[in-house]
Amino acid sequence: MTTFNLDDFSRPDHILVLDTETTGLTGGPHDLVVDVGICEAVLSADTVTDVYSSIVGYDVTEWSDEMCRAWIFENTDLTVDMVAAAKPFRLVRQEVARLLKGRYVTCYNVQYDLDKFLYREPWNLQRQFLEARDIMFSASDLCKLPAMDPRVKEYRYPKLDYAYEHLMDGQDPAGIHGKQDHRALSDARVAAHLMLKMYRDGHYDPMFLGARHRS
């Protein structure tokens, strides 16, 4: 298995922004990734390009009623039938692993998409790529939402649609027209544009991992 050392790499200019949609919040292998989207953000060019999108196929006849009624199927245009007819998981995993290998990768909530899913069974993509700073952490520093518990000094993490609405200065480069659709590619695109905006304004450093999880 390839292991990467951050000291071996220069500061990234091209960063892959990944998002997943899943059947639950617990993480793998109990919950499954059913939608994957990846965009490439180029910091120097200030551009975002869609590079990958796929529904992840499974044998849904083995699913519980709870999985079939997951939030993603009740609140978006993604359906269980679409998952049943989609490209099989093993092929999606191969394609995603090939795209991410050796690249700088981030998400809007690394602890969810990576720690709970891509680093766990059945994906097992640990040490296959390099992490850039979590977009959500920089957004948290700017949105400054107070924690629900007044004893907690750290700011509360803003949801992606809130951060996008409040930090983009009225611009909508991701083209969501005020409504997040909670599909993986669209959300990756929103997160990538938000990252670029914060980078332009001097509020996002891809190399600052802040003890990885928080500044």
Model description:
- By secondary structure, the protein is α/β, with parallel strands linked by helices.
- The chain has one domain (6-200): Nucleotidyltransferase, domain 5, CATH 3.30.420.
- Helix content is 33%, strand content 15%.
- The protein has a five-stranded mixed sheet with strand order 3-2-1-4-5.
- A hairpin with a 4-residue loop joins strand 2 and strand 3 (47-55).
DSSP summary, beta strand count: 5
Task: Tell me the Rg in angstroms.
Answer: 17 Å
| Domain module tally | 1
Order of helices and strands: EEEHHHHEHEHHH
SS content category = alpha/beta
As an assembly, this protein is single chain
Mean pLDDT: 93
Strand order of the largest sheet: 3-2-1-4-5
Major β-sheet profile: 5 strands, mixed
Brief digest:
With 215 residues, the chain is of the alpha/beta class. It is 33% helix and 15% strand.
